[in-house]
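quick one before i forget lol
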Amino acid sequence: MFDYESLKLIWWVLVGVLLIGFALTDGFDLGAAALLTFVGRNDSERRVIINTIAPHWDGNQVWLITAGGALFAAWPLVYAASFSGFYWAMLLVLFALFVRPVGFDYRSKLENTRWRQSWDWGLCIGGIVPSLVFGVAFGNLLLGVPFQFDDTLRVSYHGSFWQLLNPFGLLAGVVSLSMLLLHGATWLMMRSEGDIARRSQQAALVTALVFLASFIGAGAWLWLGNINGYVLAAGLDINAAINPLSKSVAQGNSGWLANYTAYPLTQLAPLCGIIGGLLALLAARSQRGALAFLGSSLAITGVLCTAGFALFPFVMPSSLDLNSSLTVWDAVSSHKTLGIMFVAACIFVPLILAYTLWSYAKMWGKVTTAHIEQNSHGLY
């Protein structure tokens, strides 16, 4: 089918596609939930917001589950090291995500103001926390994660949760949070009307400005700061099996910008992020929700591609032992495993995409307060 080197590259692309798919789909419902208590001013308006995302959120989670499964099967060492290093951060995200299904299902079971407001804030926090933590995690990848492998390839992590909350990691978290809030706001512009759409427009304008400032600021920090990326010095056989300690890694990639110099086409990624943010801003000003949503989607794609292109071929750099850093070439499963998974991906990823698009098409349309009030027991 494909040689080992090609399959390693293919799975780097496929994992990236799954992460982008998750950010594009689950990103808008995380962002909309985070805006719930700010855009919705009364119970009917908040139910409108919830009913724009509740029919889709569980389907959107499939992208995250698939990405996690692909990470486990394709990059087992990355899975092991990341879930050790980011254990408390992952746990925080999981507990925040647990609030959403319970909140969607139980919020409207009682006609009690305090009950519903409590679940509203739970859904809001459940949208903010993952959006922030995902960005912090990506920021720390660019700084390097304090882990290492011993001579038997047992991984050990030597950091703490609080070390993740460094200035650059928090700035990356702001990029992620503002980006997904923008995505949620543009979604609500498309799916609502009246006061909710107007407040969503205002939220989109603010979050677009914050996103552009933080994204450009993070790029400037990498470019002008003292953050040194990694380079492969010697000893790596790209067709070899798993052995991350068989290579030599050095710091000589100022600001993680080497790939952008060597491969100028990759510069389209940060440009896509900036152009997407500007498009969302201008479209929101002119009250064009669909165009604004396209802009936020481009921004998300550009941001994730920017991070991926900067890190390549590294997947999880180590700040504790440079040679323990995991790359596309030495952190993957066997040739046969990647081949079998590739066949499965060719079958199931198009199926996921097809039923996702079908569900959106069947449940498309604006949700109004009048519709909510007429179906007080039939909707969320």
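fyi Residues 4-226+333-374 form one domain.
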